[in-house]
Design a protein that fits this description.
This protein has 432 residues and is mainly alpha-helical. It has one domain. 75% of the residues lie in helices and 0% in strands. Keywords: Membrane, Transmembrane, Transmembrane helix.
Length: 432
């Protein structure tokens, strides 16, 4: 009962956040309040680690904000509590896409076999994960784990295919975070700059695993993904672009959230008119409450980043860098990925870096791409990321195994990112 009510609060948050962006007469406190009410209702679902992380971020943000207010900053409770409301709305809206994107029971084809099947599975998982996130990863992994004995050759590549979508997908929370903390970035530029990195990630993964002994590939069974279903993400991207032309002042994050809600409702109604309402309400009452961990993390990270940002404004002269350079960017990349491996979620380090660098006039497209790189590589390697925690509990793998499987991948991707970031930095300097 409480979980279901929390789900309805999350749906209300998404709808009201979009409504506020389009019609400012809708007060912002309404979606912000619903987010915190939902968190209170869903708090019993949090594990002890999630609860501890939430409290640390919340208390830290409130203390920083309190000091800033004591030093003369104007208090803004709605800004403090609602900094990441748009990101939560994005997560809620995109989650409904799984209702119209996932394969129906009995509609799956026979499993392909061999290296070609591995390549198809890798690419297909990447593309579908870019739209429906973890749902695609688990559906593919569940079937492959029933058909293949080697957990590493199944789970490690799928985790990379999923996390690599963070380099470019506008439907990933990573893009929402990047656009929040690099607010003047253009989503089209971030996508264009991120796609080469995703291609490198998938190419390296295929090359690395395809060197496995031939007898392994004779027994490998892939997933029969239907590429004709790609019309949905294509339609979504076109819709977001058109809506952005009509509502240029509305955040891309909220355009994606609103369009995802609208399209999933319409498509579900046309596909299954008799079951549409039951599936929709079922997702609200059972699916959305599963986001309790993400909800707690994003709300608390918003408080932490906002409070810290106000504190930085008070002590600007002593806390801020005098200049930004490529070397600073690369150092930040390495430090934030290392923090992810140690258990600090990328949204925390990105939010801190975002407010820290806000006054240095860093090119937003470069900064946004840097944040996407941190998320994509950090999530793949972090034992405490939501993806890896879910894989560990679902398939019985240890945190140490994740680090061993992904260690070489992280090292390679960091090396691959350096020249591309250097090129993007050069473009920024030339165009400045």
């Amino acid at each position: 009962m409480m979980a279901g009510l929390g789900g309805w609060c999350l749906l209300g948050l998404a709808c009201l956040a979009v409504a506020h962006a389009v019609l400012p007469a809708v007060p912002l406190w309404m979606p912000v309040s619903l987010g915190w009410v939902a968190l209170i209702l869903l708090a019993p679902r949090l594990c002890s680690l999630q609860g501890l992380q939430f409290l640390i971020l919340l208390i830290g943000g409130c203390l920083a904000g309190g000091i800033a207010w004591h030093r003369g900053q104007s208090p803004d409770i709605i800004r403090l509590l609602g900094a990441n409301t748009g990101l939560v709305a994005l997560l809620v809206g995109v989650s409904f896409l799984r209702l119209v994107s996932l394969p129906r029971e009995g509609h799956e084809a026979a499993a392909p076999v061999g290296r070609r099947a591995f390549a198809q599975t890798l690419l297909g998982t990447h593309l579908f994960s870019a739209v429906i996130n973890l749902s695609a990863l688990f559906i593919v992994a569940d079937r492959l784990m029933r058909q293949n004995q080697d957990r590493k050759i199944v789970l490690a590549p799928l985790a990379r295919a999923f996390s690599a979508a963070a380099f470019w997908s506008p439907f990933f929370a990573a893009m929402g975070v990047a656009l929040t903390y690099a607010p003047d970035a253009h989503v089209g530029v971030l996508i264009a700059q991120g796609i080469p990195l995703a291609i490198i990630s998938l190419g390296w993964t295929y090359w690395q695993f395809s060197r496995t002994a031939p007898e392994v590939w004779e027994e490998y069974r892939g997933y029969p993904l239907r590429y004709e279903a790609l019309w949905l993400p294509i339609l979504l991207v076109i819709g977001v672009v058109l809506l952005h032309l009509v509502f240029p002042a509305v955040s891309i994050i909220l355009l994606v959230a609103g369009l995802a809600l609208f399209m999933s409702a319409i498509m579900l109604w046309f596909r299954q008119p008799g079951m549409a309402m039951a599936e929709w309400t079922g997702h609200v009452t059972r699916g959305l409450p599963r986001m309790s961990g993400e909800l707690a993390l994003f709300l608390a990270a918003g408080v932490f980043a906002t409070g810290l940002g106000q504190l930085f404004e008070v002590y600007a002269s002593s806390l801020l860098l005098s200049a930004f350079s490529l070397w600073v960017a690369l150092l930040l990349l390495a430090v934030m990925v290392a923090l992810a491996v140690l258990g600090v979620h990328p949204v925390i380090s990105i939010s801190v870096a975002g407010v820290w660098l806000a006054s240095l006039h860093v090119d937003s497209n470069f900064l946004g791409t840097l944040f996407l790189c941190v998320w994509a590589v950090g999530v793949a390697s972090a034992p405490l990321s939501g993806m890896n925690l879910a894989l560990a509990s679902r398939y019985g793998i240890r945190a140490g195994s994740i680090l061993r499987w992904q260690g070489s991948y992280v090292a390679f991707m960091l090396l691959a990112i350096v020249p591309l970031l250097g090129f993007y930095y050069w473009i920024w300097e030339v165009s400045a």
